[in-house]
Amino acid sequence: MPAMPCPIHRNPITAVESPAVGVTIEGLSKNFGSLQALKNVSFAVEPGEIFVLMGPSGSGKSVLLKHIVGLETASNGRVLIDGHDAAAEGTLEHVRIALVFQAGALFNSLSVYDNLALYPREHRLGTESEIREKVVRALQILSLETTANKFPSELSGGMKKRVAIARALVMEPQLMLYDEPTSELDPVMSATISEIIATLKDEYHVTTIVVSHDRELALGIADRIGILMGGELVFLGPPSELKESKDSRIADFFHPKIDLKNPRFKTLET
Amino acid sequence: MKQLTNILEGFGSAVQLLVQSCRYAGTLPRQRARFIEQCYLIGYTTLPIVAILCFFMGSVLALQAGYSMENFGAKQFIGSLVGLSFARELGPVIVAILLAGRVGSAITAELASMKVYQEVDALVTMNIPPARMLVLPRLAAVLVMMPVLAIIGNLIGWFGGAVVSKYVQSIAIEPEAYFAALRRYMKFKDVGTGLMKAEIFGFVVVLICCSIGLSTRGGPREIGASVTRAVVASLISILVLDYFVTKALM
Lengths: 270, 250
Ligand SMILES: Nc1ncnc2c1ncn2[C@@H]1O[C@H](COP(=O)(O)OP(=O)(O)OP(=O)(O)O)[C@@H](O)[C@H]1O
Ligand SMILES: [Mg+2]
Fold this sequence. Notes:
The complex is a heterodimer of chains A (270) and B (250). Chain A is 35% helix and 24% strand. Chain A has helices at 61-68, 91-94, 112-122, 128-141, 157-170, 187-204, 215-221, 239-244, 248-254, 264-269, and strands spanning 8-10, 17-19, 23-32, 35-45, 50-54, 76-81, 84-85, 97-100, 175-179, 207-211, 224-229, 232-237. In chain A, the strands form 3 sheets. Chain A has a 6-stranded mixed beta sheet, with helices on both faces. A 4-stranded antiparallel beta sheet of chain A has the order 4-3-6-7, covered by helices on one side. The longest helix of chain A is centred in the last third of the chain and has 18 residues, at 187-204. Chain A is globular and about 60 Å long. Chain B has one domain (38-249). Chain B contains 9 helices and no strands. The model of chain B has no long low-confidence stretch (mean pLDDT 93). The interface between A and B is medium-sized, with 21 and 14 residues. The complex binds adenosine-5'-triphosphate (ATP) and magnesium ion. Magnesium ion binds at residues 61-62, 102, 179 of chain A.
């Protein structure tokens, strides 16, 4: 890869400029009992890059994201964020990381508005009216204005997803992680999410890792793509290389052969 | 053996949680709203059931005392007996047990559900320590509310004893005599000891319930299991601590 000048991340709140953060994953393995969820995974996400992680269900994508935010501890290997070990205490003091959980993980006892306002309030990032401005803007971007006073239990699946994304936006992170951001959204909303991801990269040089099954989203926004299968990284490279890949596992993943005349459950019965 | 390690592990994580929460004690003024909300939940919502239970506890104590003390011709000391037993022992223990059942179970259920549905994980990634936001306000609130609940419990218990003493024919002691006896043998230290005990029990109950809630793992079924475990652990701790604290404060 040609040497690029390091992009500058500008914190939209404090206007403090800092180099965009990179993520380095070194020989990461994770065992849950006898199950090997991650097998010696190594790759680096460059500062300011959009990295899309794909792979079949159960291949270890969410587990990998959890290692990056320090919610899981590695059985072997490590994750470095901007040089800080992700598993160490205090890393979150240095780097602002937002994770959009696959299931949303909204605070059920707080209204949508308070969900979004919690982070800036707890970290005292501005007066209440400054926080309100930021929250309202995030709600507008995701077409959530009418839900501000609702509680998570009153929202549809797709709305919850959008609130989770809005909550991450309000954090104005240097490193943004999305776990299936578009899985429950309609095409228009999916396009909006792609746009948000691209804008954050272009304007603020937010380093982004997106886990997604959505091919269109992946190919549209990714600088590079990684594919996990059974806990192993089987592909790493730009989208253009993906199309030329000769690996049959990848071809099967993107173009699964489904024989409707002879469905699998029928063959299983006999 | 497995159970012993579980108990030690639970004890360890509770102590750890306590230390973490104490580290954030300075943030309490900023968390005023949460503190007040918890005071309301711990104090105000427990009050009716404390009142009812303490009234009947006082009544039955007077009834039993009347029955057994009649044999010694010591009926006039019923007030002292009810007063002292309530202030030193029954008041704090009953209030703590009600706290465990009414508030402790709710705390564990709430925190366990936050854990199971990844809300706690979300807090951690937002660099908001759960000990600071979820545990500290509850510990502070119970420290403030427990003595209040215990004092009210005592007063109502004494009153319950007085009512029974006056209206039950076999006892028939006038309230003036009852309260005079109550006052004669009661020292300030007796009430103080009781409040101290209530304070310790309440604090330990809330700490245990928070700790067990936050260490819940697995699916929604574990929420129920955690609540059961928290209430049982609280009750055992109250009664075991009761002996040692009483001995230490004598
Ligand atoms: N806490 C856990 N305990 C035990 N096993 C786990 C745990 N978390 C994940 N696993 C296992 O690790 C493997 C990878 O899970 P992961 O959630 O990362 O899959 P995924 O790639 O995100 O799949 P999906 O696309 O369906 O979300 C799975 O086999 C899962 O059963
Ligand atoms: Mg997943």
